[in-house]
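Final paragraph of the annual report: two paired records, presented back to back.
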Amino acid sequence: MTEKTEHTQIGIASIILGVFGLIFYIIGWFFFSFVDNRLYGMLIGLILSILAIVLGYIAKKHGDFYGNYGMILGGFVIIITVIIAILATPTSVEIG
């Protein structure tokens, strides 16, 4: 027989923020690039991801395993941000 675990609202909010952070990051990267304002969408996604990690940590302390999923989603967006920042940064400047 399985135990029924209660999920806190903080854990569910962590997952929702992680998913929205990923969606806003993808929208900011792909769709806002045509308007040359991709930074705003990516920044919103990054902020939501950080909030997902914080809420996930709080939910995990209360024993809700949904917090783990929110932390994983938030961490995934932050890792993608770091990789894209490294790859998109110019390494040399040509003058002339």
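The closing record of the year follows.
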Amino acid sequence: MKLKSEFLNEIYSRGFIYQSSEIESLDSLVSKNKITAYIGFDITSDSLHIGSLVQLMLLNWLENYEHRPIALVGGGTTLVGDPSGKDTTRKIMSLEEINKNIKKIEQTFTQFISINKSGLIINNYDWLAKLNYVEFLRDIGSKLTLNKMLTYESVKNRLDREQPLTFLEFNYMLLQAYDFYHLRKNFNCVLQMGGSDQWGNIINGIDLIKKILNKDAYAITSPLITNSDGSKMGKTAKGAIWLDKAKLSNFEFYQFWRNVSDEKVESFLKLFTKISLDEIKKLSKLKGKEINEAKKILAFEVTKICRGDHSAKEAKDIANNLFSVNKIDNRLPSYEIKSSFITSSKFSILDALEKLNLSKSRSDTKRLIKSKGIRINEEIYSSSDLSLKIYANKPEIKISVGKKNIGILKIKK
């Protein structure tokens, strides 16, 4: 599909568009005018993880082509909980928790859109908290039907599995539709973008805008990105891949991208970097060991976009020290212990992995030892008594779990 709009053509060519409404009309509008578009983010944690990265890159590309991006933080809707793509009811959060999360997450948005230039961060609590519920049901609830809501996959899946779907969560659909209506009315926002699990919610907003304002509005959803095993991207066995460096080190973030599967490299370069499509085409032709060079470029570019140039260079430098020149880098996660604790067997490999946050549990560590998944100074650890006594006289040791998770145990006399 060839589109006239530079913005739409760019994101289509990179694989961002999964579903769209009236794409020809939207293309005509965007090719002639600068538009405002938004994406909503529920604030369920104090950091976004890479599951939100497709949406953040969409806002980045929108601004790149001189349109106005809005990052809508769901201070109001997070109080309710979005059932889309969820098997269970979300935990109810307090307003205080949500506001703390918003303050921390705002910094992440500034990596992707220029708040002082054209981009906006808006909190839907500002208008949702002022709604009169009786008037809302009469004016908004009367415009959207349960018949249609029940056809959405996110609702059908919960009902088919006989899992609870509360009236509170049904109200979420009304509130998100109202958000689009509010932004269309007050900010001339004509486009809502989101993940494919948001399609029904976005279409509700378009219907509401047409019925009340008699104006056009449009939808674009992106494919949900998954890992090789089919699980939703953003989580690993060790935990979430957070965008905030305070929750995940630059090196660990970089290593996640450095170790993606070969078949994901091309699509991830398109979605998560600003590298030209011509250059990506060349990189995607690399095979065998050579594809590792493409993975290094992917890891560096994504880290640079999400955390800045300095963070990307730091992570690349640590990786080079560890894997190219076999040098222990003291910027890695570390823990200090006295040698006497090691020689007296008061501190074992189980304690070391726990303190370095390299394992989920002690039983997991034992499983890793049996499967030869732990290395100390590049040698497989296999001690049956779980001791570290043979390392007690060394000033420091490098402990590795697989290829990605590495820590330094510093041993003091």
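The first strand starts at residue 19 and ends at 20. This concludes the annual technical report; the extension proposal builds directly on these records.
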